[in-house]
Amino acid sequence: MHIDLTGRTALVTGSTSGIGYAIATSFAGAGARVVVNGRDERRTREAAAGIREETGSTEIHPVAADVATSEGAEKIIAAEPDVDILINNTGIFSATPVFEIPDSEWRRFFEVNVLSGVRLARHYIPRMVGRGWGRVIFISSDSAVLPPTEMVHYGMTKTAQLAVSRGMAQSVAGSGVTVNSVLPGPTRTPGVEQFITDLIGGDMPFEEAEQRFIAQERPTSLLGRLILPEEIANLVLYVSSEQASATSGAALRVDGGVIPTLIP
Ligand SMILES: NC(=O)c1ccc[n+]([C@@H]2O[C@H](COP(=O)([O-])OP(=O)(O)OC[C@H]3O[C@@H](n4cnc5c(N)ncnc54)[C@H](OP(=O)(O)O)[C@@H]3O)[C@@H](O)[C@H]2O)c1
Description:
Elements: E1 9-12, H1 18-29, E2 33-38, H2 41-55, E3 60-64, H3 70-79, E4 85-88, H4 103-131, E5 134-139, H5 152-171, E6 177-184, H6 190-200, H7 206-217, H8 229-239, E7 251-254
Parallel strand pairs: 1-2, 1-4, 2-3, 4-5, 5-6, 6-7
Helix pairs in contact: 1-2, 1-8, 4-5, 6-7
The structure holds NADP nicotinamide-adenine-dinucleotide phosphate.
NADP nicotinamide-adenine-dinucleotide phosphate (NAP) binds next to α1, β2 and α6.
């Protein structure tokens, strides 16, 4: 299968590092014009430069904006009024016992992980419908289906994304626009490396901590290791392609088999 995104503009939120950076890079490699986003001007410019260097593409455009705020969403929309592919990837996580999470943190997680994507989708999807083509993906998590005891507020936001994406897909039925969510499992990003080091202990080689993390905390993994960001990007690239036209309203797993059910 040859995936060609020439002529398409893709916005990937939270693409200065981790999974978002890998998705933006894979889109650039497939010929898309890519809008890279993070909160910090310099980090966002550097990420765009890194992708240009890796792929040879000249069509990589940094837009620094905090997508967790309406002002940030407006800034992106002003810079890029129309996109063909929207990847709502920005997300935060942190471990806190559920009875110690204050209202402010419940709200912050909802604003960053859910409302950020809702605002952008609300602007872009009707315009995609007008043009008869579009792809929207919410980057959710295995935590949507298996709420982690150490971060229930995070799990809540990831489950909410499934409802939002399915509902939006239903709202644009038959339009040529698809809306889906992708559920990554534990993926080797700098934040997850730190999370595992803090949880398991920093006094051993990372590969040993990774093995212990999988055995203790994600024992249902069929992969037996962390997923690489590029492995997530491969599925996102396919779902964003012309070829994925019959996939909409779906919750698609790239979780290394962590979710131990037949259907998510
Ligand atoms: N890694 C995993 O194991 C895993 C598993 C399942 C699901 N996921 C999901 O995958 C997505 C990406 O995770 P990741 O691990 O790749 O994260 P990450 O490495 O921490 O990267 C997060 C990205 O989001 C940006 N960001 C954070 N807050 C932002 C905001 N308010 N506005 C704009 N950008 C913002 C960061 O950029 P700046 O810091 O430069 O602003 C960074 O580029 C998240 O939705 C996460 O829930 C991850």
